[in-house]
Amino acid sequence: MNLNLTALIRNFNFLRYSVGIAMMFNGFPLIFFFRDTLGIGPASSTFTAIFFLLALLLMTPTYLFLRFYKPNPILFNLGVGFLAISMYYFVFFNPVGTGVTDIGNYVFIFAFLILLLSIPSDVQETVVPVLFIFSLFSNITLVYSLMTDPSWTVGMRAAVSFSNEGAQAGGNPHITARNGVICLLSALVLIPRYKSVFGRLFLYFSVLFSLGVIVISLAKSSYLGVGIMVALYVFYNFKVTRIFSAIGSLFSFKNLIVLVIVIIGINYFLKVYSNVYYSLVNYWSVFEDRIMDVVFTSLGVKLTETADIDASAMGRVSGFADFLDTIYSWDVFLGKGYKFGFLDIPILEAWVNHGILGFLFFNGFNFFLFIYSLQEIKRNTSPLSTFLAYFFLSLIVLLISGGRPYDIAYWFPYAVMIRFLGIKYFDKFNAKPAPKQLVTANP
């Protein structure tokens, strides 16, 4: 009885930790749904702050500050190093002035990282399923939001419309696409762990659903990110022997049943909802046109007759010009100051605003993330590490095409990667039952 009660408390703690991590890692779709679609809470950043505070409370262990677990030391040093540099510039070299939002972002980033370091490694077993459930629910809420939004029609970019005053018209389709990528990846990571036919069917249909969400978001960066993930998966897993073994396993009784049900389901869907299929094809056509516009804007090469200037790409072209102006001036050493220039290219903005040191720390951090991601794709150490490795690949395009190096949309996932990606002791951790980890920095 005592053992059962202890196991129950332990599992409950891991579940609440995982829910808190999922809320921080991918909370914006839920925030937009509850705040903007359902009208729950104030239509301002106050609601976002309350949401993240609740997530941090769920993650708080009873032994807070008494026990810490070892992260990836290289990622930790480089990541915290860049944050420290940007905070120094925020305080002492800040031409745009101070802001409550900036202070709040740093507080949430460091609080999240400290709590992640306080949570046992065993939590990785429950994080991916919780991330999948949250992201799938967010996909469903997106469909509901679009159906109840009178201003949205098929053909427009899919996003939850903001209701707060002064917000941009419509919503943020990149949040939509990112959630679709998270649902797709978490489902694919979970599929090998389920032998149930119906469980696998559910996950496969979730993958297709997520692909549809990514398509209707019309987020070019996510399209390209998915392409990078697929390319690297094929590169590391393409072997002739595996093809023959996969073909052989396909003809097993259980897999044949799954295949038949999937084919019947897809055919039925296409017959009953043929308009959905044609809408997805139209979205893909729009994406191709936008890619041609980006090529024309960036390189001046007009590959099609209809290619035109892309406003978003033009902003990045001008941002690159700002970068060139910086490296040919004395600002190349110290930068121009905290948030001085918005390039929409994070890897370059780190140099423009924070000089060589900021550039080296931020891009060194992302370089090692890329190396550890490639290693993880080869090794498949754990479901969470594999998920994080592929998810980082989807962020690579954004690092050259969207956002700022300080955005919490980057740093919340970065914090999880610092804690769980490229950890050497996870090899032993997953090979046998994990021993209790000590209060020291080592497991």
TrEMBL record:
The chain crosses the membrane at residues 14-34, 46-66, 73-91, 103-120, 127-147, 175-191, 198-216, 222-238, 250-270, 351-372, 384-402, 408-426. This is O-antigen ligase like membrane protein. The keyword Transmembrane helix applies. It comes from the Bacteria. It comes from Dyadobacter koreensis. Keywords: Membrane, Transmembrane, Transmembrane helix.
